[in-house]
Amino acid sequence: MLHTTANRRHPSDPPAWRRRAGWGRAALACWLVLAACLQTVHAEDGYDLWLRYAPVEAEVAADYRARLAQVVAPATNPTQRSARDELVRGLGDLLGSAPAQADAPGGAGALLVGTPASLPAIRRLRLELDSLGEEGYLIRSVDVGGNAATVVAANSDTGALYGAFHLLRLVQARQPIDALDLREAPKVRLRVLNHWDDLDRYVERGYSGQSIWDWHRLPDWLDPRYTDYARANASIGINGTVLNNVNANAQILTAPYIEKVAALAGVMRPYGIRVYVSARFSAPMEIGGLDTADPLDPAVRRWWQAKADEIYARVPDFGGFLVKANSEGQPGPQDFGRTHADGANMLAEVLAPYGGIVMWRAFVYSDEEPDDRHKQAYTEFVPHDGEFRDNVLVQVKNGAIDFQPREPFHPLFGAMPKTPLMMEFQITKEYLGFATHLVYLGPMYEEVLRADTHARGAGSTVAKVVDGSLEGHALSGIAGVANIGTDRNWSGSHFDQANWYVFGRMAWDPYLDARAIADEWARMTFTADPAFVEPVVEMMMTSHQAAVDYMTPLGLHHLMGRGHHYGPAPWVEGGPRADWTSVYFHRATKEGIGFDRTTSGSDAVSQYAPPVAEVFNDPARVPEDFLLWFHHRKWNDRTASGRAVWDELVHRYSRGVGQVARMRDTWSGLDEYVDPERHHQVDRFLAIQQKEAKWWRDASIAYFQTFSGLPLPEGEAPPPQSLEYYKSLEFPNAPGNTQ
Ligand code: GCW
Fold first, then answer.
1. Are residues 213 and 129 in the same domain?
2. Which one, of 153, 202, 161, 210, lies nearest residue 182 by Cα?
3. Are residue 394 and residue 415 in the same domain, yes or no?
4. Which residues neighbour 120 within 8 Å (Cβ) at sequence distance 6 or greater?
5. 430 an active-site residue?
6. For residue 483, how far is its CA from the centre of ligand 1 (angstroms)?
7. Residue whose CA is closest, atom 2 of ligand 1?
8. Domain boundary residue, one of 184, 201, 223
9. Which pLDDT does position 71 carry in this prediction?
10. How many domains does the chain have?
11. Which residue among 156, 184, 212 closes a domain?
């Protein structure tokens, strides 16, 4: 429940962003006004993310100040210092004056933060902490010597740091803190960002500037941004980062780069974050002078062992390797006649003594086998279930094709019970409008995590596969391809910060609710005023379906421009491989449209457990969002709405465009709650999105109509340009393309 006073607002009050800054409130002390003035000098540029710590309304600030008057938190090591500094800074900014700091609680309103080992006052409370594990924490309202106090307790300093961020979140979201009894422990062990960042600072599929890693100036120059990156990640529980692109450069494994990696590890360590690198499988040949990278060759194994020893000598808590092997031209064990298991196990063996792990990607598809690309990862990996060492995770994209706007869950989930499967989500929006389209990914992540694999009967959700609970794996992980760059707002757009945020929150707990996360994010990032939060959350929650509708409705997929993936290009055909064309995926003819993956088609459905396969195989039962993913339908076949396939397709394209228009309206009516800088940019980006949504609709309809030969349903506007016009558009400099 919210503090009721927090959001009370009189129509004649100044706008929320001004009130927050303290303008015009005569009751405030002079120094506060001064501080507020200074604050307005610094434009809102999004740099502070959800850690903005904007002042809470004066009427509630007093309550919070009374309850959090004094921070009692040891600071004898860097992690403890991070927690204490964050609390002092956060509470100070939120509540208008920094809390007192003390070694032991005294008087009312003490906030105890630490572990039984770090703080005697916590030890004396005899809290039950065992079940919280290494990284969990509890937050509780307690009585200390007859005074009301709050305790944030954990078994480790990192757990206490996570608890400190949680407490700040409560204040930021204006939650009551007088009767707290919260226990939190992450459900997934490895919560990792994957940066597709090259060593020259180019970011593959990056839409927010250059790589934040300034490799050239490392290790001597540590950009303060690295610390803010670590803080932001720790605040949502992310505990690992893979620094470089999976299309890896072996240079990262050379001595000078290991020094640079070590420097970054030093910044991340106090925040509970381990660093990992993407390893190029052929590195022993490229930088080691060997003439093979065969994983069973003793010299190759010795080379990797020496490399692991070298890395751990510099980075004792190094996380391990991420590997993209035998995929899209990357080298791998198959080049030497070996299997994925041979390759992964060789690396796992050299890391095991140090506690390192291997994240081996299952995003593979062969150029020799012209089988439905949907099926290839399953075909290649399932036979190796049980062969991987116990410090290997197989990292599987959420769907079988490639981060499309919407995909059914990957059939590998539930199909490799003996292997921990790590989820790979994409946070950067390669196929979802880059950074300009407002698309909140929470509903998409939620849909995949809640999907039922039926691997062990009903209720075997993807979340249970991923968190290890379905098969009892201790090792578990979720990875997200980062959307972070040098742009001042980190993610290229203000609303893409929400995707970084929701990724972290769901990696911590894959059962969380996308709407609830949007709500807490909006409160922290903009304002807790419900008149703002409610419409914004609604807009965020509808945004994913809107994008699916205007780009790839009814289960269509992979129709973006070749290479850069910007804009509609359902006409793409020819070139080096069939499955790099759009026509391969939509299969439109005069008769109908869609990829037949039923038992009478490519039979990809049979890779799912029977109850799932039956549903996907049946055009009357398959969720309509996946109709053309699994079925080739005639243009005049009826859909659930009663409309013919052609009419439904057009209807959905237009529905998506209409939804973006509503999002724009919503946002433009919220200017009084948001600072002008951020409001303006979101407004302009929504205008771009609306233009591009319409482009998607028009170009797609113009193209598919050449097959269906059918008129547009009544009331539908024809595309304003010819198909030739849409086909003629070229974007050689679209961002993020592979170099
Ligand atoms: O989605 C595709 C991207 C590639 C990427 C690949 C992968 C890093 O277009 O840019 O390469 O997936 O996931 O390996």
1. no
2. 153
3. yes
4. 104
5. yes
6. 14
7. 402
8. 184
9. 98
10. 4
11. 184
Q: What is the spatial distance between Cα 57 and Cα 16, in angstroms, rounded to a whole number?
A: 10
Q: Which residue did the predictor score with more confidence, 365 or 445?
A: 445
Q: How far is the CA of 663 from the centre of ligand 1 (A)?
A: 30
User: Is 647 within a domain?
Assistant: yes
Which tens digits make up the pLDDT trace of 424-433? 999 999 999 9
* pLDDT attached to residue 369: 65
Residue among 196, 280, 364, 739 to mutate when testing ligand 1 (max atoms within 8 A of CB): 196
DSSP β-bridge partners for residue 72 = 112
Which of 328, 371, 672, 677 is an active site residue? 328
What is the average per-residue pLDDT within 131-147?
Answer: 97
| Residues having CB within 6 Å of any atom of ligand 1 | 196, 204-205, 246-247, 324, 328, 363, 402-403, 430, 738
Query: Is there a domain that residue 543 lies in?
Result: no
Minimum-distance ligand 1 atom for the alpha carbon of 481: 13
By most ligand atoms within 8 Å of CB, the mutation choice from 203, 363, 401 for ligand 1 is 363
State the average pLDDT over residues 111-140. 98
Task: Fill in the amino acid letter for 528.
Answer: A
Q: Is 45 a catalytic residue?
A: no
Examine residue 37 and state whether it is found in any structural domain, yes or no.
yes
Q: Which residues, other chains included, contact 363 with Cβ-Cβ below 8 Å and sequence gap of 6+?
A: 324, 327, 377, 395, 396, 397, 402, 424
| 446 and 572 together in one domain | no
Residue type at position 248: A
Let me know whether 264 and 321 are in one domain.
yes
143 noted as active-site residue: no
Q: CA-CA distance, 548 to 566, in Å (whole number)? A: 15
CATH number where 706 lies: 3.90.1330.10
Confidence of residue 7 (pLDDT cuts 50, 70, 90): very low
In percent, the amount of the chain with pLDDT more than 70 equals: 94
Which atom from ligand 1 is nearest to the alpha carbon of 328?
14
Q: What is the pLDDT of residue 42?
A: 56
Angle at 187 between CA 181 and CA 193, to 5 degrees: 120
Q: Domain containing 721: what range? A: 549-595+632-728
533 domain residue, yes or no: no
Are both 357 and 272 inside the same structural domain? yes
**103 and 17 in a common domain:** no
Q: Average of pLDDT values for 272-293?
A: 98
Which atom of ligand 1 is nearest to 738's Cα? 10
357 CA to centre of ligand 1 in angstroms: 22
Q: Are residues 227 and 131 in the same domain?
A: no
Q: What value does the CA radius of gyration of the chain take, rounded to a whole number of Å?
A: 26
**Pocket-testing residue among 197, 247, 404, 566, ligand 1, by greatest number of atoms within 8 A of Cβ:** 247
Does 29 lie in the same domain as 63? no
Residue 482 Cα, ligand 1 centroid: separation in angstroms?
13
Q: Measured in angstroms, how far is the CA atom of residue 37 from the centroid of ligand 1? A: 46
User: Quick check: 80 pLDDT over 50?
Assistant: yes
Nearest in space to 463 (alpha carbons), one of 419, 507, 518, 517 = 507
Catalytic residue selected from 135, 430, 549, 647: 430
Mutation to probe ligand 1, out of 401, 430, 560, 566 (largest number of atoms < 8 A from CB)? 430
Indicate which atom in ligand 1 lies nearest the CA of residue 204. Answer: 10
680-727 residue pLDDT tens = 999 999 999 999 999 999 999 999 999 999 999 999 999 999 999 999
CATH number at residue 449: 3.20.20.80
Is residue 219 reached through a cis peptide bond, with omega within 30 degrees of 0 on the bond before it? yes
Of 558, 542, 275, 345, which Cα lies nearest the Cα of 431? 558
